[in-house]
Amino acid sequence: MFSFRRWLLFAALALGSRLGAQPPLTTIQDILYTADGNLFNGVVTIAWKTFEASDTSYISGSVTQVQIASGNLFVQLVPTTTSNSPASYTVEYNGEHRTQFTETWIVPPSTTPLRVRDVRLPPGAVTTQGPPAVTIVQISDVSGLQSALNLRPSMGPAFTVSRSAVINASGSIDGASGNLTDCLHVDGTSGSCGTTSSAGTSFIDGEIPTGTMDGVNATFTLSNTPNPASSVALYRNGLLLKQTGDYTISGNTIVFVAGAVPQPSDVLEASYRMGVTLSGVGFVDGETPGGSVNGVNASFTLAQTPSPASSLAVFRNGIRMKSGLDFSSAGNAITFAAGYVPQIGDIVQCSYRISQ
Q1: How far apart are CA 140 and CA 201, in angstroms?
Q2: Which CATH number is 4-139's, of 3.40.600.10, 2.60.40.3390, 3.40.50.700, 2.60.120.560?
Q3: Terminus-to-terminus CA distance in the chain, angstroms?
Q4: Which whole-number Å values give the CA distances from 35 to 5, 25, 32, 168, 233, in the listed order?
């Protein structure tokens, strides 16, 4: 028979062993990267509120910081999915002297190391922690949630990444079909850039006329015949040239006048239209506005009113001027600012769109 003293000794040893026991821990070990593929360097701050572990250990609320070097994460935490009271960890990633993002961890018991993906609570998930496992709330459990989700566009059968989005007949989002170099029309159809679903509409931009650039040759050729010829905007070293003044055009042939022949180092670019017919839209090209070019007069008048007003492009000696700085416009009137008034001998050209 044990004596009372020996019984007290055994009781003290048992109690000491119980009080000194460590709660179960789960190891989370992973390699972290930033979105650009580099290894994450910084600090992970992990916070939790007070809870009771599965072995009844009292886990007081606290915060710990884990230093991450070259992406290496290693931390041991008390499981929360089997805790005797609801629990989770709030994890904050800090790098480059700022908080980058925050997430929630729900840690299950495990004898082998887990990765971050094994403990991360997915965005939008709603959970209640506690024994015996995590409880996931279904969409149907939340009143009105399914109706709200139904109002959001869904992925259609032709959905494709890296494509322009098109809303199909059922309201879902599909990827636009066609070649990657095609242009997309408002009705969701696609085709070669510069065309619409109506035949014969085409714009040519930034074409380099063919011809020998030797300072002697004056004849150059366009790939197509402009229609109308007045739609040709021909630039030499970035300066807009004037038809009949610097060159003439017949069909798709450009002939420079004497004194304006391109030199070997010059760069030519041409933009023009080919039979463009757009409902309600008209084009005015290379118009010389009415007004005296005498170095004093600042007011000039266009034959028609640009629509929209922002379509008005004003060139002085081939250099495009800036609206609101070099000039202002109201209706069909142009007023040049002080210091930008056309001088004697200057050439003023205007192009714009009109409503029809």
Answers
A1: 53
A2: 2.60.40.3390
A3: 116
A4: 66, 30, 10, 33, 46
Would you kindly state where each structural domain of the chain is located, as residue ranges? 4-139, 153-193, 203-273, 281-355
pLDDT value at position 328? 96
Rounded distance, CA 250 to CA 219, Å? 11
> Hey, is 19 helix, strand or coil?
helix
- Report how far residue 287's alpha carbon sits from residue 290's, in angstroms, rounded to the nearest whole number: 9
Write out the two tokens for 296: 């004093």
**pTM for this one?**
0.44
Place of tokens 């210091």: 339
Position with higher pLDDT, 179 vs 201: 179
Could you tell me which residue, 149 or 59, shows the higher pLDDT? Answer: 59
* 135: confidence class by pLDDT, cuts 50, 70, 90: low
Residues 6+ apart with CB under 8 A from 229: 243, 249, 250
Q: 264 vs 94, 143, 212, 213, 222, CA distance in Å?
A: 59, 75, 8, 5, 19
Contacts of 210 (CB under 8 A, 6+ apart): 220, 221, 223
pLDDT recorded at residue 168? 81
Closest by CA to 256, choosing from 271, 272, 268, is 268
What are the phi and psi torsion angles at 119 (to 5°)? -120, -10
- pLDDT of residue 18 exceeding 70: no
45 strand-pairing partners: 65, 92
Within 13 A of 287's CA, how many CA atoms are on the CB side? 22
pLDDT in the model for residue 22: 84
At residue 9, what are phi and psi to the nearest 5 degrees? -65, -45
Q: Helices H, strands E: what count in the chain? A: 3, 28
Per-residue CA distances from 138 to 103, 120, 131, 135, 346 (Å):
21, 18, 19, 10, 75
Structure token pair of residue 246: 């610097």
